[in-house]
Amino acid sequence: MKKEENGELDPDFISRLASFLGFEEERVQHLFEKKYLAWNWGKHEHMLRFDKEISHIEHGTVLYEKGGSFEIIMGFPKIRRAMVLDPTLKKHFNGLSKLAVEEKMNGYNVRVAQVDGEILAITRSGYICPYTTERANVKLNLEFFEAFPELVLYGEMVGPDNPYVPKAIYDIESVEFYIFDIREKNTGKPLPTAKRRELMEKYGFFQVRSFGEIPLETAPEKIANIIRELGKTEHEGVVVKDPEMVLPSLKYTSSQSNCSDLRHAFKFYNEAGRDYMLSRIVREGFQTVEWGEDETEFKKRCIQLGESILAPLRESIRSVKDGERLHEDVRIRVRDPKTATEFENYLKRLGVDAIFEAPQPVGNEYLVNIKKVNKSTNDKTQAIWEGEVW
Question: Bridge partners of 118?
Fold first, then answer.
């Protein structure tokens, strides 16, 4: 039992949890009071999630009672960004002979694990998404979790039926899971890249594309060429890894991906954070200098960057001026219509204003179109047109 009748946390529970985490009891109590450590909802309310990074525990980490103790599923490790490839790669991976280079896909991060006999999909923030959970149970080979209940899949949910980051650039009909990491419960220890790829092939999982292991000395030049090719199809970029997964990974993205992010951010400019926008513009500056672009290439980059900022802004402002409400069209595909209802309630709990249309049969599943209303940008733009100052 997590609480006593008076609503206070059970002291024995606090004591056991503190011992498991290696924290003082007072600190655990404080985490609950600040809601940095919070309960999930509904049928998963027995699962705790970390709403903030605490010491060595990543944001989005979840834990739950098991066998008189606890089991923990660590959050996504923070992956730093290389703003320039050379000398960053040589400095960060000093001592390694080769680097594993894999595609960074543009989708929605999710962890899939077995918890109390159920296969659950856990978001980056530590919530249990009903839609992603249903898709995981439909799409993935569940025999893996029977054989390896102690392992957690870390992957990207990709495709047009993705209500978070819908992308049609990967030639996927609906949605698929692409695995990029496998980690142990409790320790968070990752499998080496070769071992992970071997295991995923055995169970028939999709994986992020591998560009192989590249010698450290030639990695900056070769990765730059990979990025140029990925950019031609608006693919996002790469993650550069220590093949043994001992040293932290680094990520590097294409100019086209940066501009795609900016187009979305400036369409809903009052929802997107300023740091989010600024960082992508700064990346463009470093990339053009490192790649030694001439004036023709530089002007092409300037036009692409400028249009990714001003074009969606103009479109949004015109829409509101003409009396329209800004929204994002997304869709989901479900096996059971009840999942759509659960997902609608889930979004409401998250504070997302979304309008769900009636499910439409598609084969043995149902397609549900959703309008996600971006209230903040709507209200801000309308207020400016009515005379409000910035």
Answer: 115
262: nearest Cα among 307, 328, 293: 307
Residue type for position 212: G
Q: In angstroms, what CA-CA distances link 12 with 40, 49, 235, 360?
A: 20, 19, 50, 50
**Cβ-contact 145, 116 below 8 angstroms:** no
Query: From residue 184, how far is each of 124, 202, 283, 357 by CA, in Å?
Result: 17, 18, 34, 40
171 by Cβ neighbours in 10 Å (0-12 / 13-18 / 19+) ranks as exposed
**H runs (alpha helix) in 130-182:** 130-139, 143-147
Neighbouring residues of 319: CB distance < 8 A, sequence distance ≥ 6:
326
**Residue 156: per-residue pLDDT:** 97
pTM value is: 0.94
- Residue 276, classed as helix, strand or coil, is helix
pLDDT value at residue 192: 98
Q: Which SS3 state, helix, strand or coil, does residue 152 take?
A: strand
What H or E segment, with its residue span, contains residue 205? none
Average pLDDT along the chain, 390 residues, taken 10 residues at a time: 58 94 94 95 93 93 94 96 96 98 97 97 97 98 98 97 93 96 97 98 98 98 98 96 98 96 95 92 97 97 97 97 95 97 96 96 97 94 94
Type of residue at 99: L
Surface-to-core class of residue 201, CB atoms within 10 Å of its CB (0-12 exposed, 13-18 middle, 19+ buried) = exposed
The contacts of residue 109 (CB under 8 Å, 6+ apart) are 76, 123, 124, 154, 155, 156, 157
Residues 6+ apart with CB under 8 A from 108: 123, 132, 156, 157, 158, 162, 164, 165
Q: Give me the helix-helix angle, 11-21 and 25-33, nearest 10°.
A: 110
Cα–Cα–Cα angle for 48, 53, 57, rounded to 5 degrees: 70
